[in-house]
Amino acid sequence: MKTVRVKQMKQLLMMLVLMILTGCKPSTGFYTYDDNYSEENYEYNEEVEVEEEANFLPVFESSPTVYRVRRGNTARLECAVDNLGPMILSWRRLINNSSAYIATGSIVMVRDKRFSVLTSTTSSMLLITLMTPKDTGEYVCEVSSTPPVHIKHWLKMKAPPSVAILGKPSSGQFTIQSGEELGLVCRGEGEPAPVLAWRREGQPLPDGESSVAADQIIYSSVGRGHAGTYTCTGDNGAGRVATDSVQVTVKYAPVISVDHSYIHHHNNISLELVCSVEAFPLASVQWSRTMEQEKINMDRARVGLRGQGKHVLILDNPMKSDLGSYQCTANNTEGRVGATISVSESVQVPTGREGVDEEATTTEDTILAAGKTVDTASDTPAVKHIDGGDHKLLKHILHKMNKFERVNSDMVKAMKESNRYLYQILRNQKMLLERNSRQILL
Questions:
Q1: Is the pTM higher than 0.90?
Q2: Phi/psi class of residue 171: alpha, beta or left (left: φ > 0; alpha: ψ in -120 to 50)?
Q3: What is the C-alpha to C-alpha distance for residues 339 and 359, in angstroms, rounded to an integer?
C-alpha cells in the first residue's frame, strides 16, 4: 500500500514539474484561448497519430468463458491482452441492462472486501472469494482504448442435478388402458444443466434398448409389454446422479395359454388341464363343460391355483364319461376370453398282469386331451393357442413305465432266488463245519 502511494506521489510531482516547465496553469474548469491563435500556424500530422495508435492495438488472448464455481469457493475471472501498451484494464458487472465498475487497473472500486484484482503488464484477474448466488451474472473486462474494447465472462454457481417427472401422480403410478398413448416427460435442473436419460427397472425398454438419452419418451399404442417402472436420471458431473421413477400399469384383457399333463400314480393316472392367465386387473377363471347337459364330476375333479395365474383342473382316474371338451373362461373389466381343451380316448393302460403287453390291453378308463381351441369375447383377442396332442408321447411313456415295473419285478424275483441260493450254501457250510467238529472230538 505504501509503494502505491509513493508511486502516486511521484506521478503527481512529475506532473507539477512539467506544468512549471511548460508554463501551464492548473485547470480550474475553464479554458482560455490566445486571441492571436492562427489556425494556419497549426500543423497536424494525421499519419503520425494513426501510426502511434496502431502501435498499441490491443488483442485479447483470453476468450469469453463460462465460469462455474461451487458455493463458498473462490471465483477467478481471467483477462489477458497482447500489446496492451500504456492502456489499463477495467472490470465491470452488467446488471439489468446497466453496468457498474468493480475495478480499474489495480484499484478496487467496490466496498465488498471479497473482491480483489491481480494485475500484470498484460493481464488482470478478478477474484471473488466466498462465492454466493448473488455473485452470479455477467462480467466485462474492458481495455481503455479509443474506442474501448472488451470481452464478456459469465459466472455461474455449480449446483447438483435434480429431476422430476412431470404430471406424476402422488401415488407414483400411471394407469393406462391398452392401445392408448403413453408419454413420459422429465425436467432437470442444475448447473450445468444435467444430461437426462430414461430406463426401465429390471428389464429393457419396450424397443429393446437398455436406456435412451432424452427428456421424454412417447409410445403411441401401449400393450401389456409396456408395463413396468420407468426411471429418469440426470447427471451433470457433480458427483451424484439424480433419479425419479414412476410405475406404469397397463389395463388389458386376459391372455390365455392352455395345456395338459399327466401324473402317473401307483394304481392310477390323473389328468391335469392347465389354463395360464395373464390379465390386469386380475381375472376370475371358471371351468366348465362345453355341452350344456354335461357337468364336471366334482367327485373326481379338483381345481387349484399354482403360482400366479396358473389355474388347474385335475381329473382323478379319468373315465369315458369324462370325455369331451372343457372350457376355461377368464374375465375382467377389459374383456372376456375363453379357451377349450378337447379330451378324447386314444391310448390304453396296462392291467398290471405279468406277461401281457400293455399295448394289446384295452380298457375304457384311459382318456387323453388331444386338442385345444380358443374363443374370445374381448375386442382385442389375446390367447396363446397350443395346437396338437401328445397321445403318442403318453403312450410311449406308459409303455416305458410298465416295462420298468416288469423289469423291477424281475429284479426282485431274481434277488429272492439269489438269497434263497445263498441261504442254502450257508446252511450246507454250517452242517459241514458241525460234522467236522464232531469227528475231531471223537
A1: no
A2: alpha
A3: 32
